[in-house]
Each structure stands twice: as C-alpha cells, then as structure tokens.
Amino acid sequence: MFKPQHIGLIFSKTAIKTAQNKRNDAVYKDSWMLLKIHLPKNDFELAQLQGLRYRFNDDTQSGASTITILPTLLSAQPINDTNLIAIIRESFVVAQCVELVRDHNNMTEALLAQLQASLIERVKLIDNHVDGETQISHLLWLATLKMAVSVVLEDEALFNECVTIYQQTIDEDVRPEGYLPRAINGETAVDNFLNQIRSAQALTLMAEMARHAGIDLYAYEKRGVSVLTATTYPLYYYFFPEKWKWVKEVYKGGKIVDTEVLEDDDAKQIYRNHAGFLEVLNTQYGTRPLKAIRMILDDLRPLYDVYGGGITTLTNGYTEKKRRGWFG
User: Fold this and answer.
1) Distance between CA 60 and CA 57 in Å, rounded?
2) CA angle, 56 as apex, 50 and 57 as ends, to 5°?
3) What whole-number percentage of the chain has pLDDT above 70?
4) At what angle do helices 13-21 and 43-57 cross, to 10 degrees?
5) Which of 41, 96, 131, 144 has the greatest CB tally within 10 Å of its CB?
6) 133: part of which helix (H) or strand (E)?
7) For residue 249, pLDDT beyond 90
8) Are 179 and 189 in contact (CB under 8 A)?
C-alpha cells in the first residue's frame, strides 16, 4: 500500500534513532563528524546538509536555512544533452530536501504547494529533452526523480508509473550476469562503467524509496534477476578495473591494434562520486554482508554522495555481525 513517510525519502525515524544511539560506534562516528563540520560546495549541498542536521540533530535553525534556500534551487535554467543528468540529479536533491524539512514550522502549506508545482514543472521540462537516444542511466535517474516527486506530491499514479519502469528494467534490461546492455554502449570504458554504476544507483534508490512508501521492490525478480543482480555486478571492478570488458577497441586492417581499458583511478573516482547507494544496498544483506561491499565501504566511509541520498553512512549505515564470501 502506497504510504509515504515524509522523513527523507530513503530512511526512517528508526534509522535516525539508531544513528543517535550508536553515535560513537565505528560505522557512525565519522559520519556524525562529517555532518557537523562539512563545508558545502554549492547551495544544493548546503540545503541537503542543513536538512540532515534538522532531521538528525533536531536543529530547527538548520531546517529553516534549508527552507530559505529551496525556492531558488528550482529556478529556470536551460536544459540540454550535456547537463541533463546533472539537472535530474540536482532536482532529486531538491525533492529529498523538501521531505527532510516537510514538518518544519516554517514549511507553510503555500510554500509546500509552490515547491510541488516547481518540481512538476521541472519534470515536464526534463521530459521534453528525453527521446529514444537518451542513455538508459539518464532514463533510470529520471524515473528516480519522478518517484521522489511522487512521494512529495503523494501521487500514487505517478509512483506506480515509476514502479512499472523499475520492473520493466529488471524484466528486460538487466542481464543474468548483472550488466545492462543499454548502459554499456558508450564510446569509452569510463562512460560504460559510469553508466552501469549510475543505473545500479538509480535502481537502488528507487527500491529504497518504494520500501519507505510501503512497497517492496527489492523482492521483485524475473528469471532470477533482481536489483541485487545489477548492483553487485560492478563491485568486482572496484578491485580489478583492468578486467572491465566493455571497452573501446581500435581496429586497423581488420585487426585490433589498441584497446582502451578502465583505469584504476577512473574506477575509484566513479565510486567515490556515486557509492552512497552501497550503504543502502548493504542493508539488504542483513547480518551476512558481501565482503566486497564491506571492503569498499571500509575504503570510502563515511560516504557523502550529495546527489545519491546524502550522508548515507549516517542515514543508512549499520553494524554488520557476520561475513560471507566476496560476491555471495
């Protein structure tokens, strides 16, 4: 049953209490410090950070700061092929921030209605720049944005449209090995890896938002394929990027004369920029986490993925009790 919680899209009140109660535990300690001292790089990051401070510290002044910033973050700007994914992800941050401060005393009904209308308009503008050539990772991120907006609007019909997109992706796009053919059709190895990671990130965020709205998409599978299939596929390449096979081959005289590989620095940077979803994903393995996820989290924590949910080590981290194999 569609029943949004209106807390922060990807976490619950229980998660807040857990983080507060385990403030000094290894998983949470550094993320609490990050929440306290981090210096935002732009207004999207500032709004999100202040919203998280409101939620986790009951800091009403920080919440008021987020509310002051929000109306300006959806101001009109030209949308084109080069900035499409950035605008989609920025708009997702705005939707999350609305949820973070939705119950703040300064969030009037009139302001909420204004923000809802602005988000609807933003989605319409983005839709006008999407066609059959749009990269699947962008389309999945657009579905992620729309699901976030459906929560903000309490629009069950829009939410169900996003659920359908999610299910169709699992049914038709994710291969049993875990890759998405429409994600690895780019010009370079880096493009293909980034598209696979962004697709996995979007699917994870959609499943988590749905979970906090009363629908279990993690359990959805077809022919043995689920969101976990797509999200675990790229883990191996964090450690062995040179094994990434979706590369560009240069032919001359009918023979391969050069092959571009995924460099270690590129793979690590992509994970640093997008790995917030791993904290969310990790909870799905309960007390038997994948060692690969554990090792990546050990390298990257505390995770602050601004456009992928925020300080997800704080909002979605938890202490594991038992380990199992690298990928199963």
Assistant:
1) 9
2) 80
3) 92
4) 80
5) 144
6) none
7) no
8) no
pLDDT at 257: 40
**Geometric angle at alpha carbon 262, from 261 and 267, rounded to 5°:** 175
The residue count of the chain comes to 328
Q: Which amino acid is present at 2?
A: F
**pLDDT score for 326:** 46
Rounded distance, CA 149 to CA 92, Å?
8
- Per-residue pLDDT reduced to its tens digit, 158-182: 999 999 999 999 999 999 999 999 9
Q: How far apart are CA 73 and CA 316, in angstroms?
A: 26
- How far apart CA 231 and CA 203 sit, in angstroms, is 8
- DSSP H or E run through 48: helix 43-57
| Separation between Cα atoms, residue 35 and residue 70, nearest integer Å | 19
| SS3 (DSSP) at 106 | coil
Of 55-59, 171-175, 221-225, 319-323, the one with minimum mean pLDDT is: 319-323
Write out the two tokens for 169: 């992706």
Domain parsing of the chain, residue ranges: 13-316
Tokens of 307: 């456009």
Residue tagged 């459906």 (tokens): 150
Q: Is there a contact between 138 and 84 (Cβ–Cβ < 8 Å)?
A: yes
- Separation CA 55–CA 63 (nearest Å): 8
Taking the C-alpha atoms of residue 278 and residue 276, their distance in angstroms, rounded to an integer, is 5
pLDDT of 119 reads 97
* pLDDT above 90 coverage of the chain, percent: 85
Which numeric CATH code is attached to 13-316? 1.50.10.100
pTM for the predicted model, two decimal places? 0.94
Note the helical H segments in the chain: 13-21, 26-37, 43-57, 60-73, 84-100, 109-127, 136-153, 156-172, 189-211, 227-232, 236-239, 264-274, 276-282, 291-300, 312-316
